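Table S2 (text version). Query chain:
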Amino acid sequence: MLSTEVGYYICGASTLLWTPFSPACRACIRAALCRKRTEMIYGELYRIRMEEYSGKEDYERRAKSKSLSAGSCTRLYATALHTDSLCGVVAQHMRPEYLPDRSFQKIQQAIASHFRTYKRPPSYAMLAQTFAADYDAIELLDTFREYDEGDNPEAVTDMLEAYIKGVRLQGVYGEVGKLYNQSKQGEAEKVLGSTPSGWEVSP
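Corresponding structure-token output:
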């Protein structure tokens, strides 16, 4: 039925026509024609659909682009696991969405939990025991240990700080742009005014 004249007729008679959220609509060879028809008949609905879909694409693109690379994370955790100050920063400021995959996220959760309790990084042996049944996590921990080349903790901390500031600014600018598009200039200015100039690490 998809891409046929009969299907096009049925869609026109029983739906609100083209929507970018529908895989069938996007795959249909009559999509361009139906899209113009939708815009002409349901102009406001078409506008809302396009704005919402554009926002969805932007969100997915930001989610993919804002995570740290696996290489950067390996360098970060290899250094944090023998540096109290950096481990504290990681425990406080690292978020799951900053990390490239679930294995990094699980290790981050274990490190943060241990640091909050003992105020020092967990040992490799302790983490290996925690993830004894998780082959992917054990392999990742082995990667940290092999990579451990004595990077300068201050340089690694600066790298993480610059990354997190960049992510926060992206979020602020995205929100400000959205508010301006909605003619909410006052709210946009408040968001800009509340943007922190740096980060503070709790003792």
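Notes on Table S2: The two ends are 64 Å apart (CA to CA). The chain is about 70% helix and 0% strand.
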